[in-house]
Fold:
Amino acid sequence: MKDTLTHRQLQSLMQVSNVLNSSLDIDTIMDSIMNQTISVVDAADGGSVWLYDTKEDCLIAQRARGSFYPHIFSKIRLKPGESMTGKAFAEKKCIIYRNAKEVNEGLSNISLKNLGYLEESVPNFPFTSVMCTPILIKGEPVGVITLDSFRSSLPFTKEDVKLVKAISHQAAVALEKANLYQEKENTVGKLQRLNHVITQKNELLSRTVEIHNTLADLVLHGKGLHDILKYIHQTIGQHVLLFDEIGEVIASACDSSLSSEIHHHIKREVNHILEAKTRAVVERIINGKTHQLVLFPLGSRPLLGVLTILSEMEIGEVDITALEHACTVISLERVKEQAIYDTQQRLQGEFIHNLLSGKMDETLIQKAKHLNFDPNRNYMALVIDLNDLRYKQGDQMDGIMRHFIKMTSQIFLEISPKGMVVRNQDQIVVLLSFGAKFSSTSMMYQTKEAVRKLQKGIMEKNWSGDISIGMGRVKPGLFYVHKSLEEAMKCLQFIRSYHFENKILSYTDLGVQRLILQNSEEELRDFIQEVLGPLMDYEQNRKGDLLTTLFLFLENNQNAKLAAETLHVHPNTLNYRIKRIEEILSIDLTDSKQLLNVHLAISVYQYIKEDLNYGMQMPGLTLT
Structure:
C-alpha cells in the first residue's frame, strides 16, 4: 500500500507540475495549487494558499477550499509569526500541528480580530490537525500552503510533507515565472501608455501650432474678432461667443441662433467668471439637454472679457489647449481695439472741447476735415448725461461707457452717417450732420425717433442707472454748432435744477421755460412776486382756492365752463372768483399784455415754487 501510495503521489506531483507550468496567470496558478494539493493529500479536508503583501506587511489568503466561507476568510490578515501559517512563513519551514492541543498552541498568538474571522468562516472549527508549508523563492518566503484536517483517524504523513514541499517548490517556480511575465506585461503596458501620451502630445502640439499660426495670420492680415471667432467655430465645431468686461456679447460664431434661455444660462456663468477671474468648465441641463460650457477669462488686470464655448458634447484636451492659445490672440486683439478706440475718443474729445469754446479758426477747420466734417453742412448737438452710472467702479464704468457709446453710435449714425459720438468726461456728446435737403423739422423728428430707440435699448440693459438727454437746435455750419451744444447743455441744466420729470428735453420744446435759463433765480422770484405776489399773500392768510382757480382757468384757455367743471363748482362761483382775482391783482384778464404776464409768472412759478416758501398745494400744471 505504501509503495502504491508513493507511486500515486509521484504521478500527482507530475500532474501538478504540468498544470502549474501551463499558465502564467497568477489567479489560475492559485486555483491550481489549492485544488491539486488537496486532491493528492488524503488527510487534507480543506486548505488555503497565502501570499505575502509587502505594502501591508502581512499574509493574505488568495484561495480557500473545503469547509470555509471564503468571503469572510479573505478578511484575515496575518503578520509574519502570527498563528500557524505566520509561524511557518517566519521560520521558512514546514510545520505540522498533529492534534487539537498543538493546533490551539499554534493559534495562541493570533489577534482577536483574526480569530473572530477564522471562527466565523470555518463552521467545523477548530481543526484536528494542520500542516503549513512555506513557498520559497531563492530561499525567501513569498507565501504559505496551509492544509487542514478535521479527522483524527487520518493524520498527515512524512510522504505528505515531502509531496507538499515538492508542490510548494513547483508553485514557487510558477509564481516567479508569472511575476516576471506580469512585470513584463506591466512594462509593455507602460510603454504603450507612454507612446499613447506622446502621440497625444504630438497631436496637441501640432494642432496648437496650426491654430496659433492661423490666428496669427488672421491678425497680421487685419482681420478682426468676428473672423477670429469664425475660425475657432469652424475648427472645433461648437458655438463660440465673446463677452466684454461687463458681460455683453461683442462677437459670436454659431451654427444657429441660440434661445433666450440658453443666453440666460450663458450670461449667468459669464458673470461668475467676471467675478472669479478663473477658467471654468461647467455642465448645465438646458431644455432637457446636457450642455458643456467652457469659459476663459481674457487678460487679468483689467479683465478684457470672457471667451465662451457652448457644446452638447465634452470638449477634448486638445481643443482646450488650443483655445487657451486663442485667448492670447483674442486678448491682444481686444487691447488693440481698445487702443484704437481710446485714440479716436481722445481726438474727437479734443475736437468737441474746441467746438464748445466757440473759437472757430483754420486749425479747427482742418481738424474737422480730418474727422470728415464738412463745415458747410447743418449740425445738431445732443448731450447725454449718464447720471447714476458715474458712481460705478472705474473698470466697470469704462466698460459700460464703451458699450453705451457703441450702442449710441449704431442708433444715431444710422440717421447721420457723418456724425460723431464721443465721451466727454461723464457725458456723451452726439454731433449729428445733415445735408441741405433735410429740413429742421425732419432732422428733429428723426433725432427724437433715435432718442426713443436709445431709451428702449437702455431699458433692456441692467446698468441700474438712468439717463438725461439735452438736444440743441439745428445750426447752419460748424461755425455755429457750439450754440447747439450750449443749448443741449442748458437743457440738462434745466432738468437737474428744476427736477424736470421728463429726462429728455429739446431746446426747441422749452418754449417760455427758456426765460428760466436766461435769468437769475432772484430775478425770476421778483417777477413772480410782482405779478402774483398779492394773490399769493391773500391765499397764504386765508387758505382759499383763488390761486388754484387762476391756474385752472388759464389751463383751460380762459373757458369758464370747462374750468368750472374741472373745479367741480358752479360757473357763477367761478366768475365770482375770477373777478375777485382781478381785484386783488389789480388786473384785467381780458387785457392781452396783462394776461401774458400772468401766464409767464404761472409758468415760471411751477419750477421754483419750492423756493418761494408758500405752503399752498398747487396742481402740477404744464402751462406755456
Summary: Confidence is low (pLDDT under 50) at residues 1-5, 614-624. The chain has four domains: 2-183, 223-337, 358-510, 519-612. The longest strand covers residues 140-149.
